[in-house]
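Wait, mind explaining this?

_____
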Amino acid sequence: MNEKIARFLEERRPATPCLVVDLDVVANNFGALSQALPDARIYYAVKANPAPEILRLLVELGSSFDTASVPEIEMCLAAGADPARISFGNTIKKQRDVVRAFELGVRLFAFDSMAELEKIAESAPGARVFCRILTSGEGAEWPLSRKFGCEPAMARDLLLAAARMGVEPCGVSFHVGSQQKDLAQWDVALAQTAELFQSLEAEGVHLTMVNLGGGFPTRYRTDVPATEAYGAAIREALLRHFGNRIPETIVEPGRGMVGNAGVIQSEVVLISRKSANDNRRWVYLDIGKFGGLAETMDEAIQYPITTERAGDAEPVILAGPTCDSADVLYEKADYRLPADLRIGDKIAIHAAGAYTTTYASVAFNGFEPLSQYYI
């Protein structure tokens, strides 16, 4: 926790659970990625955290935006974004949402199937479209394989079809998986992308853009490569596979843009054991899976957790407050908290700026959505 957030919590003493985000950290992350990939355009993945304060800041910094729905498009426009700098990157869209996005000025659309391409061609004539290809998700802590994208051979056929359907086939996209630590995964995806470019060029379709997706990580309990390392690996892969004909590139950071900017403050509601000889305490917090920590599912994302207590650390099972047996955060992972931890103590959940407020339920068990502050 940095001094700015610590001071806010000390002075304001907000009710828990709450998320506090330092906007200066977001600005620094934007600058670092811009420097690491100076030739790529940044399309912030709005779904990571669509707070108006973040969107307005990123508009001022010159960011573009990757959106997943019409409401997200409208949020970006309300923050001052130019619709020409907004991508409708969800490959699963209702026809009326394509119509509305086009009415709002969006001209860049993603697809990965013929049915989706037909929607765009009918409702957004003349739009630029890019086809998403499948990736393995290997090396990612939150894989995004299977549901999105298609095999490269199908992508080739779809982009050829797009050229005949009144839209402009401009490129290919992929996503190597969220919280991706394996730098080589971009090389694998770019090799497939370059082959697609060459195959389509032979058919008279000249693609101009590669969407490198997201995957840029936040540091949780283990170290991750530096932003500069991602930039170097991607630049090397582009040169290797495209030579001196490097296309326009865009990136879609979400977690890597806002994850480390936020801290959730929570309160210990209960500490108990399940039997007299139970060697692990159950520590129940006032936030759980349904309050914003959905990414603890399968213990995939492991947030750093600290407390001001200084006793000897002992193994614990961490759970949320709701009346749902699935609301257990960490049971297999080795989490340890001080032996002198007490009910009512405050807990800090670090690197929680991404995929928390938007995952929080509206009122499961009557609990209010996660409060949020941007400073």
Remarks:
- The first strand starts at residue 18 and ends at 21.
- The first helix runs from residue 3 to 12.
